Amino acid sequence: MPPQRDIGLYIHVPLCRQRCHFCAFYLEIATPARIAAFLSALERELTLYHRQDVLAGRALQSIYFGGGTPTTIPSSQLASLLTRIRKIYALALDVETTVEAHPSTVTRQDLSRLAEAGFNRISLGAESMAPQDFIPIGRPGTISETEQAVENARAAGFSNINLDLMYGLPGQNLASWTATLHSLLALDPTHISCYALTIEDHTKLAQDIAKGLVPAPDEGLQIEMEEAAETVLAQAGFTRYEISNYAKSGYACRHNLLYWTDGDYLGLGPSAQSYVAGSRFGNIADLDAYTGQLQTDHLPVAERRILTHEEQQRDALIFGLRLLKGVPHTLARDDAGQRDILTHLTERGLIVNEHDRITLTPMGRRFADSVASELF
Ligand code: SF4
To answer: Where's the Radical SAM core domain (predicted)?
Structure first.
């Protein structure tokens, strides 16, 4: 029998206290009624998958509560949910268990409760350490709440702390971005994610830019900021291991690595995506429809596709290219057309195809999506 691939469990909480101006994700505003509806449907979804034995005794390498903002749900309920998951599924001994949190939504007591329930990694959405950056993007909260949340998380026992940042924000410049990086480093996280701001259609930020109320992102400046992040974070002992992710040694996010290393993951919750045994499927992105399906004991899957071997290889190549170490050359198709494309991408300085591995160059990383689309 072939060895079992690693698998992770993702719980998608599509609830936030309010919508940030740049955010185009499917989500709903968290109210006690919506939280209750979500949790009761999620419980049914967990039970259905458990009954169908979808994970077939495989031990979970990672559990990840993402969103949205999972911590809009009271910590006692998040803790109960994790306890239930830990009871019904086999876990790897060193299972990585992450909860995403907005700093304003967690008290010291909440964080202690989450750590006691088994969460051992926290990902806090800092976004910036300069208060003026929050205004145009409609990010609620203060810098001191971020600082307090990190201190509280550490006091609660979290030793693995990720902080998310965004760059290319309206009004941000290279000096203020560098200052944000240094302020963030002073909080001593183990992992940092740096995401370039992208303007999504139909968001308030897109409308504000169109009206001339807010400046559009400057691509050249974003590139300088990306380079500054790589330099400043490397000096502080962080390795960039994926386009947007930096970690101290031993702290790369195991759950997210599943996405980039062709691992399996089962996603629960509205709009959650899954990839299990060569099959990709995604849940309905609507809480009412999701709840309705589960009330009649149907899985809330909106689309499902079984991938051919070639499609699996293609996806492994596309996602794996996001890693700085790239992918084995054997993932590329061995035909004349593919070889021509690889040669062309190499000549344009977008990839390096050497030592049996394909990696993106710094320029290739900026155009990762178009490089991937040219490959297939
Ligand atoms: S907290 Fe995150 S998911 Fe929620 S609205 Fe803001 S960006 Fe979107």
So the answer is: 1-239
